[in-house]
Amino acid sequence: MVHDITRAAIVGATGYGGAELIRLLQAHPHTEVTCVLSSSSSGTPLSGSFPHLTNIVELELEAIEPAAVKEKADVVFLATPAGVSAELTPRLLEQGLKVIDLSGDLRLKDGAVYEKWYKRSPASDDMLEQAVYGLSEVYGEKAAGHSVISNPGCFPTATLLGLIPAVRAGWIDPSSIIIDAKTGVSGAGRGIGLGTHYSEINESVKAYKVNAHQHIPEIEQVLGAEAGQEVIVTFTSHLIPMTRGILSTLYAKINGAHGTQEFIDLYRNFYAGRPFVRIRENGIMPATKEVSGSNYCDIGFSVDERTGRVTIVSVIDNMVKGAAGQAIQNLNLMMGWEESTGLHFVPMYP
Ligand SMILES: NC(=O)C1=CN([C@@H]2O[C@H](COP(=O)(O)OP(=O)(O)OC[C@H]3O[C@@H](n4cnc5c(N)ncnc54)[C@H](OP(=O)(O)O)[C@@H]3O)[C@@H](O)[C@H]2O)C=CC1
Ligand SMILES: CC(=O)N[C@@H](CCC(=O)OP(=O)(O)O)C(=O)O
């Protein structure tokens, strides 16, 4: 089948998410990056911000003008901080552009909840309603033909892929869920600060945003819809001295009696035909290195008959499945292409 080339613009092209989108899209057969945008560095070459792209992407950064973007692109990826997309997305849609937003601006359907956790004004109700929540393996079909996709957060991606099959099957008690999550430092973006300074985080591990993380309401919103009841979770994020990766350890009380092999079979069936979720056998747990640089989410299980709890471990690369890779997976689903198009990256190992 012949595909026309879809032209992609990247807003936030000087950041980590933008750079990863540009890197991954080089391998996409139906998409070309035609336009890179910056609020602070327009008029400078992209390779000035990212020397690793020298002789690969020879584009100049441009100012963010929706009408000018329309001349050069069909779809716009927003790899921008919270607050940008709420204002920019309606202006891009007015131009007839499609939008895939990597920020948290369009994920929470209740603007008041967004305001409480992000401490900012929310997008309009109309915008929030229009945005499809793009957890590809679970809600990806809803993306087809839509104009605006909200890419899930990195922690929610690992966590929800690890929990939804069990919650939907009624195998775990949703009120018992505890999420212990670890992330590499690239999750904080390219900006510099004491919290991510090398000598502050190297050879150290710390919990942060405890009981205040902006991904808590996102996880609760989705699990609540899956369970058909309000779900409140305990979630703690930890910063680990590594560049990429998220490991989410999930604990929940089992309803009835289900062994490790039953969980493995349940998840294998749930994700059958979905190329990017891999289920580990025999209680073997995945490691972040086993998905690094790829769009995979790997999940392992261990039922503890002593406590009546299941431990589920879910790993992703935060920059790929947690951000740019899933955004491209959502582009594929939006455009009606095979969902793995351009995403067949083997993890880097070791
Ligand atoms: N890093 C990760 O693992 C993940 C990130 N995300 C989300 O993706 C988004 C991008 O993250 P990331 O790339 O890591 O962050 P970075 O801080 O690395 O990059 C963000 C970019 O946004 C641009 N920007 C800043 N202010 C504005 C503005 N007012 N208008 C337009 N552009 C602006 C900046 O570029 P310039 O100054 O050139 O305009 C900057 O390079 C964030 O919302 C983040 O929360 C989601 C999942 C995972
Ligand atoms: C290490 C680190 O700081 N990670 C970030 C990841 C969140 C993110 O990327 O932002 P979104 O809300 O747009 O998903 C954090 O925990 O806040």
UniProtKB/TrEMBL annotation:
Coiled coil: none annotated. Pathway: Amino-acid biosynthesis; L-arginine biosynthesis; N(2)-acetyl-L-ornithine from L-glutamate: step 3/4. It catalyses: N-acetyl-L-glutamate 5-semialdehyde + phosphate + NADP(+) = N-acetyl-L-glutamyl 5-phosphate + NADPH + H(+). It is found in: Cytoplasm. It is an enzyme of class 1 (oxidoreductase). It comes from the Bacteria. The active site is at C154. The keyword Chaperone does not apply. Keywords: Amino-acid biosynthesis, Arginine biosynthesis, Cytoplasm, NADP, Oxidoreductase. Pfam families: Semialdhyde_dh (PF01118), Semialdhyde_dhC_1 (PF22698). Belongs to the NAGSA dehydrogenase family. Type 1 subfamily. This is N-acetyl-gamma-glutamyl-phosphate reductase. The lineage of its organism: Bacteria, Bacillati, Bacillota, Bacilli, Bacillales. The gene is argC.
